[in-house]
């Protein structure tokens, strides 16, 4: 898996120059393609011990939790990201997708609508 070092879409911060973060996850690119979700989650858990409130690390862990069908934990992580960086649009979109998968259609729609409005506002302010 290749790490995208770009800015989170709509996030308050640009993490692309966070050398400490990328030093933590740089070795992830060297893991074998057949790496299990559990191993990937563990890898991010170790990085989060050093930077526990880093939205990009949390987001990537949440993505792997989602891939491993651990939806409730992934939602908790998306909520934590939004507490840290309330404009992290990608976290809202992923939360919407997860809510849809677990059958919470109305909550999913509300979350997606909020994300789309936020994205529109952020895009217009750039």
Automatic annotation (TrEMBL):
Annotated gene: nlpI
Pfam families to which the protein is assigned, alphabetical: TPR_19
InterPro entries: TPR-like_helical_dom_sf, Ycf3/AcsC/BcsC/TPR_MFPF
Origin species: Marine Group I thaumarchaeote SCGC AAA799-E16
Family matches, as SUPFAM superfamilies: TPR-like
Highest taxon above the source species: Archaea
Keyword vocabulary terms for this entry: Lipoprotein, Repeat, TPR repeat
Name of the protein described by the UniProt record: Lipoprotein NlpI
Gene3D superfamilies hit by this protein: Tetratricopeptide repeat domain
